[in-house]
Amino acid sequence: MTDTAPPPPLSVAMSVYNGERFLAPAIESVLAQSFTSFEFLILDDGSTDASAAIIQRYSAKDSRIRPILRENRGLVASLNELLGESRAPLVARMDADDICLPDRFAKQIAFLDSHAGHGVVGCWSEDIDEFGEPWPDAGPDQPTDHEDLLARARQGRQMMIHPAVMYRREVVLGVGGYHSAFRHCEDYDLWLRLASTTRMANLPERLLRYRHYAGQVSTRHATEQAIGAAVAYEAWLARDAGRPDPTANLEKLPPVDALDALFDERGVSSRVRARVAASIQHSQTALRDEGFDILLRHIHDGGDRSGLWRTAARLVTFGEPARALRLANTLARAR
């Protein structure tokens, strides 16, 4: 039977992969919103834990939930599928490990209703750890207006919190949705592409409890995320200068050494290495994988060495004395 019901004003889009630990409170925080007229799409991306069973249990209790259960295809494919399945003109993102405060949707909808030129609105977060306690190093809050967001982008810093945003579906579809080449930083690339087509803002209110813990994507894939963000920034610079974006149709980014050829511009590879080197200096994961080699190459290329002696000391505390010695020797030779 064909569903003839009118579309709801809001679709909530959540992708889940092995998220059983925090999934129930995340779902309950959406169902407890003061704004109640929404469909809740929860896509299980081939989880091997109890996530699918949890989703099915909640969908049996609340008809607003539309479960999508399938094999694993990755987050970018899942986000684009959720975008395609959404029936509402507005889409609220939500992750399976965070918690919405009760008035989040109502306040973001009110903003978009009164700001027709804005396609995206986020909010500030209350950062918590895996036990729900305050996270000690949350960093500065995101800018609240479009111009300051662009200034933040030029600094290569975080513009919006992905699971805290609400956007107009057609605006995101209009720039091609999420690009698979930017795995683990697909949101940052999207904000940079949207910055040329619509206005964006963050509400100066903490309407999401954003969770930090060892198993999250930004921790496990720190180097890949840093490389992707640096390349997305270079693509934004190219578009801003009126040049073609060579990443637009890529399924996967090439190695860093091939970026000069991709962009047809000398210096892109070294700029990307510099941005990666600056962003991974506190990451145990990145300093133990290919990020360390990128850091050494950055030094060999004569890049900025500010703070890298402290990084060498940090490697000792990370239990990596051999890498600490290699970094110290490289720094000493570069003087």
Automatic annotation (TrEMBL):
Q: Which residues form the Glycosyltransferase 2-like domain?
A: 11-172
Q: Does the keyword Glycosyltransferase apply?
A: yes
Q: Which UniProt keywords apply?
A: Glycosyltransferase, Transferase
Q: Which domain of life is it from?
A: Bacteria
Q: Could you confirm whether the keyword DNA damage appears in this record? A: no
Cited Pfam families: Glycos_transf_2
Quote the InterPro entries the UniProt record gives: Glyco_trans_2-like, Glycosyltransf_2, Nucleotide-diphossugar_trans
Query: Which family does the UniProt entry place this protein in?
Result: Belongs to the glycosyltransferase 2 family.
Q: What is this protein called?
A: Glycosyltransferase
Q: Which organism is it from?
A: Aurantiacibacter aquimixticola
